[in-house]
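A note from the maintainers: we've had questions about how concatenated examples are separated. There is no special marker in the raw files; a new sequence line simply starts the next protein. For clarity in this README we add a label.
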Amino acid sequence: MISIFAKHTYTLDTENNDGVYLQRVSSRVRGEEIAEYLGAKFNPVSGYEDDVCIRVKSCGLKHIRDGDYVDALDDNWLVGWLKDRPKVKVIAMSQAHYELLKKELTNDLVLIPHHHVNFERVVRDREKINTCGYVGVNSPRDRSINHKIRRELKKIDMYFVPLFNFITRQDIIDYYKTIDIQVIGYFDYLDTPFRHPAKVINAMSFGIPTVAYPIMGYKDIEDYYIKVNNMEEMINEVEKLKDKDYYNQWSNKIIKEAEKYHISEIAKKYKQL
């Protein structure tokens, strides 16, 4: 039996009243959703002593037994602690993450990517190609970047409608059904292996191409998104995707690749533990 431990998700109202945001999304994705799919225990208080135990984004190692798994995710401060606990096993979330941890740690290490949100394999069925977006946060810096993206896309008659406030998995599914191209316009963010490709893989599962700056965390999907280095290149690539034949070539390619990240496939990796 598998037991998964993770802090519960919760919603948060922002001070400037720009939406309600789900906090600890990784706890839901890597904890609740996987536990429910596997029929595993989630945050048991007893009866897990003989189980394979996975701690998602643990806040410390004192309560973790040798032989348990830590799903490290983007908590880079865990690396230093894990060096002192070589018998604790570690789960990496992407190829770049795995390669970094392999260099830094002597712990047993396994790679388990994020599963995508599209359990039901919903297919994008929109007739027009006129709307771009992405799922993200609504910080002042993000708003500034998104304003520039919206302004530039408008010049080629494309809308830009990002999603910031979401709570359920269905919220994200419903959103992806309304857009045609995912645009991630961050060209100057610090690039580290602790960033992962889940956002791109989610869009892939609906057949939605992503145009984005290449980062280390996207190594797993190297040939399955459109790489751009600046805003001008981004607008040019979006313009190309307005051609339906070209769009469908990308859509058919990525939706097949996304099947590797369906929860039914990712669950097999947990069962192997």
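[label: protein 2]
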Amino acid sequence: MTTTSIDATSIPRIGHDEAMRITAVEFDRMLTLLGELEGDDWRRQTDNDEWDVRATALHVLGAAEANASLRENLSQFTRGRRLFKQIGGHHWVDGINEIQIRDRAGLTDHQITERLAAAAPRAVKVRSRIPAPIRKLRVVDFGPVIGRQTVGYLMDMVYTRDVWMHRVDIARATDRKVEVTADHDGRIVADMVAEWAALFDEPFSLDLLGVAGGSYHRSAPDGSDGEHVAVDAVEFVRTISGRAEGTGLLSHPLPL
């Protein structure tokens, strides 16, 4: 069966309402995965050099609790900006991530899952209710290559992509199968393809394999073909996020 290739510039981007539905599902899948972990699973190293599974889960929990509470969000931001300079981070978010982990270091493994189960629905509720004028404010600096983006960009999908990517990290570290479906994971991947393609000016043909995959392209103005790459959809995201080495077309990053 031949799969029709989709012009990456025509992929419909995920809007606010769809993003909140996706976010709720992604939190549920993360909770299911964490609920399967046992003993030494929590101490296994992930693709993030400095984080084991436990630290990754603490970060996800900290971000969810910040989503769920403006007071916690402001606290993490203020203290994280100060800590960023102390730890010599590459980006201000490094300080916030460290605050999230340090503040929750005393939790047991089981308590991490319990706290996330409590925070996740509140996080979705708060993010769902952010007024449109606030979501449109272009005040969040992500640095290269993404640059300054809106509050909505951060709240609608960046946090959710983060949970998705860390779910992959944890599953790989603990030898668990990553739960992947076309309607959920495929939609997240397609949205990332659309953004990734917009960040560089180069024709390409991309076949993403697996349940979350699809065929995408961007044509040159003169109709000439660009590089063709075939790769597993999840591996594609791991590569452009810097978790695996990419060459040629896959050297173009989309930080996650």
